[in-house]
Design a protein that fits this description.
By secondary structure, the protein is α/β, with parallel strands linked by helices. It has a five-stranded parallel β-sheet with strand order 1-6-5-2-4. Strands 3-7 form a two-stranded antiparallel ribbon. β5, α4 and β6 form a beta-alpha-beta unit.
Length: 107
């Protein structure tokens, strides 16, 4: 079975800047709307099936939550659904917004 990998914010930055990875944000809608990684897609139970069906499984996938804990379970599940390169963002959005505020946006 494919396993997810941990990814630091520092290592994730070039992948996100160059749009080399899909970013899935598993936080609640209000938190996502208030601020998220530039280009991130919200992901929850209501759109999970659609996300799995419509996302390129060969492109790296970075899963982000609040602090990097719950994203690990989501990353493992997505790896089991056929995504080839799945990463859990260490420190989550809370660390990301401090270290890379220039790559944050709100909806």
């Amino acid at each position: 079975m494919v396993q997810f990998q941990h990814l630091s914010a520092q290592d994730a930055r070039p992948m996100i800047e160059n749009q080399q990875a899909t970013v899935a944000d598993t936080r609640d809608v209000m938190s996502y709307t208030s601020g998220h990684i530039s280009g991130a897609q919200p992901l929850d139970n209501s759109n999970l099936s659609e996300f799995i069906a419509n996302t390129d499984k060969s492109k790296p996938l970075i899963v982000c939550c609040y602090h990097g804990n719950s994203s690990q379970g989501a990353a493992q599940y997505l790896a089991s659904q056929g995504f080839e390169q799945v990463y859990s963002l260490d420190g989550g959005y809370e660390l990301w917004k401090i270290t890379h505020p220039d790559l944050c946006e709100s909806s």
